[in-house]
Hints:
The structure is a homodimer. Helix content of chain A is 68%, strand content 6%. Chain A contains 21 helices and six strands. Chain A has helices at 3-15, 19-27, 31-39, 43-52, 55-64, 67-76, 79-88, 91-99, 103-111, 115-126, 132-135, 149-159, 184-189, 213-223, 243-261, 276-303, 305-309, 311-344, 353-382, 389-419, 424-452, and strands spanning 141-144, 168-172, 178-183, 207-208, 227-231, 237-242. Chains A and B meet through helix 12, helix 13, helix 14, helix 15 and helix 16 of A and helix 12, helix 13, helix 14, helix 15 and helix 16 of B.
Amino acid sequence: MDWEVITKRLNHLLDTQRHGELRGALMMLNEVDIAEFLQTLDKDKLLMVFRILPKDISSDVFAYMDNEQRQMLIECISDTEIAKLVDDMFIDDAVDFLEELPASIVKRVLQNSDVKRRAIINQFLRYPDNSAGSIMTIEYCEFRSGTTVAQAMTELKGTGIDKETIYTLYIIDQKRQLIGTAPLRKLIMANDETVIDTFMETNVISVKTLDDQETVAETVRKYDLMSIPVVDTENRLVGIITVDDIVDVIEEENTEDFEKMAALLPSDSEYLKTNPVKLALNRIPWLLILMISATFTGIIITNYEGLLNSTTVGIILTSCIPMMMDTGGNCGAQASTLAIRGMALGEIEFKDILKVLWKELRVAVMVGFVLAAINFARLMLFSGESMTVAVASVVSVSMFLTVLFAKSIGCTLPMFAKKIHLDPALMASPLITTIVDACSLMILFSISTSVLGI
Amino acid sequence: MDWEVITKRLNHLLDTQRHGELRGALMMLNEVDIAEFLQTLDKDKLLMVFRILPKDISSDVFAYMDNEQRQMLIECISDTEIAKLVDDMFIDDAVDFLEELPASIVKRVLQNSDVKRRAIINQFLRYPDNSAGSIMTIEYCEFRSGTTVAQAMTELKGTGIDKETIYTLYIIDQKRQLIGTAPLRKLIMANDETVIDTFMETNVISVKTLDDQETVAETVRKYDLMSIPVVDTENRLVGIITVDDIVDVIEEENTEDFEKMAALLPSDSEYLKTNPVKLALNRIPWLLILMISATFTGIIITNYEGLLNSTTVGIILTSCIPMMMDTGGNCGAQASTLAIRGMALGEIEFKDILKVLWKELRVAVMVGFVLAAINFARLMLFSGESMTVAVASVVSVSMFLTVLFAKSIGCTLPMFAKKIHLDPALMASPLITTIVDACSLMILFSISTSVLGI
């Protein structure tokens, strides 16, 4: 059924106050879809529908709602209801939620949580933003070394339903150090009296609490994991991260790279929900920096005043400025994008820099030759009588050199940026255009001056 | 242990021909790491090490090797070995592998596969590239409606080890139509005589075989799924896609967007492994198109020859060309990146276009005002005596209007592109810069002409 039809029906049930039917209809939907429906409601209706929801799914729905709506809801419901909600959520969802709330509400929420859970949440809130610790969950299944299959199965049947995943079992020793993992499938296949140590995987891939979430995502992707254990500095198991959360991390990190490469300060919030002032503030810093840098390119132009004021050749060269700048910028962007992306995916490292440069130079020679040749032909064919072979050659040779320069700087700058621990996407991409602009005009003008003798 | 130390030791064992120890050492490593080690070896050593590997992990390792190496290996090993390898791989991995091979080798591989498997692989190879069908796997656990928990557990114990995931069970009716799913955890918690239908989830989220992989990834991400069933046009279950494959799809789609936004033709192959000619061919088309388009901007300049040749004001305006072009381009890129990314993440749809435009206009007014004001100050303070208030005002007002124009076109063009089923990243991003360039200069020159009366 079409989503529009569904919301129409739900709204109809809501407007005609047929709460029993509405509840029944909602129970047919996925929690994500229910949350999406709730987004469209005003405060009063939101509260009413939320209270209609069966208790066992309301905390799941709550986890999928966006922060504005959750805050609105929190303000309306009783302290007991808040406590129930937060206690029913997985720790990582609860922490995510609390991180976005004003301090006063966090306090109110925590006061209504039970003591043990409050302690855990407080500890989570202390992990730095975007660290493995801040996105992990503690709802996993751990077993002491020496547990038998029968014991493990009994325990699973008792507690498994509250765990975020029971499909990987974590085996720890006396000191709580992680010594192995076992997939649930092996437990199911094994005999009751087998000790889990016999089939556990001892070569465990784990991350540390303070590792950046980007590192976590890279590891999970590389090894095709469904979940990854998080350990403290002494290799004690403290949590796990499941791949569904990693999918969100990957999209978040990609969005950040897209934003940085477009000269935007990264932002966590959804575009349509961000207010214009905040959007403007995210954009102005880089625009200003790049605008000021572009004036240096202007200064180069001023320095060749004599050249540009010489009537016929001057106007031809001036009219080539956009083409030189754009082509240089595009060539640089192509090379830097491939380098930045290659590093993000772990395909390129700093030690490959000479290999990359050599490859880019060969590419640049081919690309530059094609562009220069076509440009030469265009200038000779379509530019009227004032065009001479000398001028067309000067422009074409400059084009060739600009491509060479743009490709070289485009691929190496991001790699150097990463080497000195600057973000390649941030440092390299918007700056490259500006650098290439200035240099392409310098190449054009200096060759013109020396060859044409103006 | 450090990866460099590990490879050093492995190489030492290999060079000194201590095959038993080498085999033991390799067994301590993850399959992904073994594949990484194999990448560093030459043909002879590769073959030797590969044959040393225990048979049960060699097909996993093979699945993680890159295509060049796999092809090298395939050429050296016997037909029986090939058949064994392909038969041991999951169907989706086997198909992935075969898709990249030359037809002659595919034929040889398929001839050595068993009849049933060959039929399945052939069917998979017929699904369009990047469709759900082409990335799905058939190794899943399905049960007829009416099966009891005890029956299901027995069946799982018998066959589960060969399934890519046993953690979601798929329930089908007499016609093989998918009627529900059940997480394994519920099976474990339930009593032996319970019928699985009683706890299955009937509101199943599935995709069709011909759906684009981007759609699949979006759905999996939205609903936080660990796997998603793939059905044919009559809702019959034909396969599943697990989230670890979705992670790769997401990165692939993101890379594609990055490439398109940098005016590159998308390419599947790793940068370092692509030959320069292919890289050059991926870059030349857009560079050419954009270079030619930039000549229109040049024509605009030529049209204002009189203005630009008037000594003092002319050179000031010429020196502002890079700044106007860069700032316009950057503003456009910011807006288009947010729109393209918002659409890719499903946060923005075409129906939001007026909301987006209205937001961008407000942002543009703020950004434009700040940039224009700072630009005015800069021109008045640092430009020497030839600068007049009139000229500085003209440049600043043009800057303001350029920002307004760039933001508007930047956010709307990608949305229109998507509306008419063109790729927003491809059509919009590189073109926007070119359009904005031309228009920003037109704004600057026409205002100059009318205000300064030249």
